[in-house]
Amino acid sequence: MLLLADAAGALIVNMVAFLGGLGTFIFVFVGYLLFSAGWDSYEERFVDGAERSVEDLFLTIPPQQMLWLSVLGTFGFFALVFVASGSMILGAFAGVLGFYSPKIALRMQKTKRQNKFGEQLTDALITLTNALRSGFALPKAFQLIAQDMPKPICQEFGILVQELRLGIETEEGLANMYHRVPSVDLDLVKTSVGIAAEVGGNLAEVFDRIAFTIRERRRIEGRIDSLTAQGKIQGLMVALIPILMMVAINFIDENMLTPLFTTVYGYVTLGVMAIMEGLGYFLVRKITTIEV
User: Considering the entire predicted model, what is its pTM?
Assistant: First the structure.
């Protein structure tokens, strides 16, 4: 009787272990399928977005490598901050920052390129004006910009010249350029060329007036930036003072700030502080940013 009870108990234990293992296998397998489907979908969206950004910047980096740079950045930032601070939460935040760091770098590079394009557009319009007054046709004037001016504007007008050779209309080519390099000034040029193509007009005079308008607006923007620079610096200093104070206190007494990074109340305090600091900084930036 005792042997039967032991055998039944062993059978039940084996059945429970088998069912548990089967359930674990099914859970892991289903999770793997869901993760694979989600990862493939995200990878496709990420690569498509990175490909557009890389093409707009005329870079030769394969878009697939941007994804792996994001993954490596996640583990690298997490490991570095976790080893330095010993905090899993800070490491997680650093990992998120590391994942998005390639995207942030591309966005910053794209913004820098757009600003450079805007600075060069005035000289390009002057070149167009002089070329048209000298008797050149508009496509030939575009070609002069593509040959003689520095990057990035020569790259964009080089694409425009190639599109015109393929039979694309000038308005459509400028619209494609505006899609690659969004700019209020370029939109004004595109609209002016479209109107001139429909109703006629002196394009050389139009380009000259647009160049004058851009120069005047940039002069006013520079004046506004100089007047609001002090407020922007003050906002930045207000946001940095608490961080600098924490660093100084940590050098004086390491144990004084330990509760902030080891207790729930400390994490809540850091979160509230970060939110309020961010709101204050962006509020100051909003006040000191004036559109012209």
Answer: 0.63
